[in-house]
Amino acid sequence: MRLNQAGELTLLKKLKDSFRSADSGVIIGIGDDAAVIAPQNRQLLVTTDMMNEGVHFDLGFTSAFQLGFKLVSVNVSDIFAMGGVPKYLFLDISMKETGTTEFFDELYEGIANAMKIYGLSLLGGDLTGTMNDMALSATVIGTTEKAVLRKGASVGDKIYVTGTLGDSACGLELLKKMRPEYKEHVRALRSDVSKKLNGQLSFANGPSHITLDFVSAGPLIRRHLMPLAREASSIAGVAASMIDISDGLFIDLSRICDESGTGARIYLDRLPLSDGLKQACGALGLDALRFASSGGEDYELLFTAPADADMTGICATCIGEIIEKERIAVDASGREEELKAEGYQHFGAG
Amino acid sequence: MRLNQAGELTLLKKLKDSFRSADSGVIIGIGDDAAVIAPQNRQLLVTTDMMNEGVHFDLGFTSAFQLGFKLVSVNVSDIFAMGGVPKYLFLDISMKETGTTEFFDELYEGIANAMKIYGLSLLGGDLTGTMNDMALSATVIGTTEKAVLRKGASVGDKIYVTGTLGDSACGLELLKKMRPEYKEHVRALRSDVSKKLNGQLSFANGPSHITLDFVSAGPLIRRHLMPLAREASSIAGVAASMIDISDGLFIDLSRICDESGTGARIYLDRLPLSDGLKQACGALGLDALRFASSGGEDYELLFTAPADADMTGICATCIGEIIEKERIAVDASGREEELKAEGYQHFGAG
Asked: How are beta strands B85-95 and B121-129 bridged, if at all?
């Protein structure tokens, strides 16, 4: 069914019925002029992010489910990066009148799946038309006892990252090189990471092509299409400063340094690389280290903690330390180079 | 200068420097992963609205200043409609890379102008690229001691509206009929309503054209391009239910009735019409009553209050009363008709 046969009010009613909130801090959720919440003596965190068709996503290889899931994750990641707990979601969704209700249903299935994982309640939003490309925007409100800011880094702090780096950027590269007949295979990827990946994918490599096992390439692609934001409650207890890696390790580390008035030394051979990244880059002749240092959208956490912090139970890799002024990348042979804040910037100056 | 020469970070820094918040409830404003606010034991109101080029605005006759002003107003209107005080603003702005910094500067001049009027602090947002049309989204957080909901209407309540109705929809009609040589005249309209309007505007009327004084037509056009949300602190003291009129009087009244489980009787000859609306509709052969009953985007407030409420100092027009079940419009001759919930709906079912 086309959206212009269903009507905005029908779609809104569906959302309202599906997402009734059981949160005791919610007085009024969807359905009035504004949501009403009663915060319980904590700090509130508020973040908003937008995703536009053709710029942030390509519906040629992204399913509606994946898109909805990612929209929620990228916003939740900002709440985790402040050491907070995500609570409330507000959505602005713009689609063409000729969009289908099937697409809308699948989009909100992806949104609902992410909401469940992160424990979010949908409290409001706007559902509206657009002339051409889809535009999506989400606002997430979270709570925290004490926010972890970018500006808290001190000289002597160790620098840590969660998970592995560069997977998302490599996954995007794979999607661009992927032979078209595999698109449906990839569009079927859902968020259940425990699900077994089988088969192979084939990628253009100059005039020939390269085949990779789905078990290696799939997680890279999934990280790009459906990033899972990294929960940070234990990290928040030790972190002096924190940011999520959305634009790339080096540019996001530079933000911590800028705000804290410090430098940093990073050891490139310590950057955590997944086996899938190494295999894919090896097979396709791509630079794994460049993906890890400057690739965006990993949505892992980058944080600093005092050298004597108790890291028991915290799963993160130490990749360097905060120093006075300089920003340095040290390679495997001990050679030092200036750390360049490269990464994605909209309206990028050439 | 084009946006892709300025770069996102330069633009963000400019916003950050211009909009430092002096609000004591703000712990961290623009510049970290999320804003941090410390609510002071009140209820918080949250609303979000999106505006898309070609659907919600036409840059052919809307200036960037007017657009920025309207984006803020439509969101603030939802906070006022809950009886709240707007406090914090979050903006998502998507523009083409080839947009100019002059356009961006003027957009944020309009935003800043509205923020000043409403007492808002900008605490965050996202500035990003788009392939085709501009997309804007704003989230406003407000505070209230007690929210006024849609569902509070009771049988016997009087129904009130603030200001005059239909001006915005008539203004849009005038913009569509306006001869192109007057566009710049209209694009120069700013938010200062005390500024004297001079001259005349000319409108297509079939094969000929009609001339109207700018002093009559200007306010209608301004109401469409730069609506001023209606502050409601005194109304909130008496209102049993409230909504802002964004989609049209009848459709928004139906929402109050739906939520409250009541009917309503409206007297059409009591609908407050501006002199400008009457003049423009008279000259161009348009139906003023239809604009007033079903035209959208007036951003006036529609509320109900008990018949014995003390209305001293409240500037609003009584247009009817809440009844048990039926929804009736009574015309000047006393003839009753069913009140049809007509108004603007995205993805409107035919």
From this structure: parallel
pLDDT tens readout for residues B119-144 = 999 998 888 889 889 999 999 999 99
Task: Please answer whether residues B270 and B320 qualify as being in contact, where contact means their C-beta atoms are separated by less than 8 angstroms.
Answer: yes
Instruction: For residue range B76-94, list pLDDT tens digits in order.
Output: 999 999 999 999 999 999 9
DSSP E strand stretches across B113-239: 121-129, 135-144, 158-161, 200-205, 208-213
Cα–Cα distance between A216 and A223 in angstroms, integer? 12
Contact A235, A83 (CB under 8 A): yes
DSSP A38-98: ---SSEEEEEEEEEEBTTTB-TTT--HHHHHHHHHHHHHHHHHTTT-EEEEEEEEEEE-TT
B103, B64 Cβ separation under 8 angstroms: yes
Domains of chain B and CATH, by start = 3-144 (3.30.1330.10), 150-338 (3.90.650.10)
Asked if A141's CB is within 8 angstroms of B346's CB, the reply is no
Are residues A51 and A70 in contact, defined by beta-carbon separation less than 8 angstroms? yes
pLDDT at A350 over 50: no
* Other C-beta atoms lying within 10 Å of the C-beta of residue B195: 10
Q: Cα dist. B341→A9, A120, B264, B291, B327 in Å?
A: 12, 33, 12, 13, 9
- CA distances to A252, A345, B3, B33 from A341, rounded to whole Å, are 8, 11, 20, 18
Q: How far apart are CA B157 and CA B172, in angstroms?
A: 33
Mutate to test the interface with A, among B76, B105, B137, B151 (most CBs of A within 10 A): B137
- Residue A211, amino acid: T
Q: Provide the edge-to-edge strand list for the sheet that holds A263-267.
A: A241-244, A301-305, A158-161, A317-323, A263-267, A327-330, A336-338
Q: Could you tell me if B275 and B216 are in contact, meaning their C-beta atoms sit under 8 angstroms apart?
A: yes
User: Beta A135-144 vs A43-52: how paired, if at all?
Assistant: antiparallel
Which residues, in sequence order, are bridge partners of residue B45? A36, B142
- What distance in Å separates the CA atoms of residue A258 and residue B2, rounded to the nearest whole number? 26
Q: How far apart are CA B122 and CA B139, in angstroms?
A: 10
Identify the pLDDT of residue B7: 67
Spatial contact of A296 and A246, defined as CB atoms under 8 Å apart: yes
Q: Is the pLDDT of residue B283 over 50?
A: yes
Measured CA to CA, the distance from residue B345 to residue B254 in angstroms comes to: 14
**Chain A residues in contact with B3 (beta carbon < 8 A):** 347
The beta-carbon neighbor of B7 closest among A47, A151, A349 is: A349
Instruction: Quote the tokens at residue B230.
Output: 């209606």
Instruction: Check residue A190 and give its pLDDT.
Output: 82
Closest CA to A86 of A21, A17, A139, A49: A139
Euclidean distance between CA atoms A289 and A250, whole angstroms? 12
How large is the average pLDDT for residues B90-100? 88
Residue carrying structure tokens 């399913």: A63
Q: Provide the sign of the torsion angle of the four alpha carbons A150, A154, A160, A162, taken in this order.
A: negative
Q: Which residues, 6+ apart, have CB-to-CB distance to A176 below 8 Å? A: none
Residues of chain A found within 8 Å of residue B146, distances taken between Cβ atoms: none
Task: Indicate the pairing of strand A327-330 with strand A336-338.
Answer: antiparallel
Query: Shortest Cα distance from B200 to chain A (angstroms)?
Result: 33
